[in-house]
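Running this now, will post back.
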Amino acid sequence: MPISLLVKTVLGRVKEPSSWSGVAVLLAMFGLSHEQTGAITELLAATAALASVFIAEKGDRS
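Update: finished.
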């Protein structure tokens, strides 16, 4: 896979709110303290929720 295609794919995924939820789950798995994990997860969840309001899903251009 060419690097330009890989970068395009990753950037496309980053624009999807569900990707931010996945990042929050991954961070929770890396041995951070409960307080740190909670704070990071809540911040990412809030960011994903806000992004989902403004970013259209693929195919929805209204």
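The first helix runs from residue 3 to 14. More later if anyone needs it.
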